[in-house]
Amino acid sequence: MKGNLGKALSMGETALREAEALDDPRVVCVAEETLGELLIERGEFPQARELLETSLKRLPARARDVEAEIKSRLAEVYLVLGRQDDAKRYAEDAAAIAEDIGDLYEAGRAFRILAQVKMEGVDSKALTARAEKIFTDIGARLELGLTLHARSRVIAHDTRASARPLKQAILAFRSCHARRWCLGALCDLAMAYGDMSQHEQAMTCLDDARTISCGDPGENKMISGACSRIDSRLSHRLALIDRERPASVDAAFSLLSSRLGASGMCLLKLDNEREPQIVKTWGIPCDVAVELARATAGNDANPVIVTDVAGLLGEGKSRESVGSLLAVRLGKGGSTGLL
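RE: above sequence
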């Protein structure tokens, strides 16, 4: 399940057919629960719901461990489908059964799902804390990563605070080679950084996500969705800066730092061959300034201000570059405009 989901789903379907041939209801339900989990990972939630609900109806009465697992998966499905009441009911049932039979692993999963239900009486922070402790104690690194990721969603209203559990989740996923989950957490962290105007860090996260992606359509959608959100936020901030029209280069850097998270900038002068020459730098060493200068190839503005903000510009389209993805030029009277 950490690699090719399509292949895993095919194997799950084969296992279910073989289980049905054994004519053992418990074995069949175990195979259906496994297949349901794979369908959830593929995002096929209606199919997963139908399979798991059917499995629950024919589950042997004494198979309480399997009942906890199926109800936990159903809670997860209903949470995604927006059916909060059903998600809460199944998660509470799963937690109660798991605790009663001493299944810490499944209890932790149920606590994590219940924590994400947005209903009165649900103490999300306490539930995620219980799940984190369980998975830390039993050494379940994947589940710990998923729980940390869930905690970031619970506190998503506080962007800065939500970034911390996301970083911890990424470390947990990497420690157990959970590539797909790591990619999702990297995209969420990229968007968090974008919301905080820390665009260099946002682009680093997206680059890491692209590096580990296997090109799966679902993964491409996650990455492009994060890019689009960051692009939209950055374009909005660029428009605000353009309207303010700072009167000097120093004022431009101050705005770019505060609004876009730029940590460095350089002022370039194009020579007669249209090659950029460094005039002055702010907050960056010369070698970085040289890289930024190379990013101005083809620029017809003179002089040119280039920042180290690794952002996205315009209509959802990213401009790939080692150096700056944002350039500002000095206009008449010392004012600035966007290229």
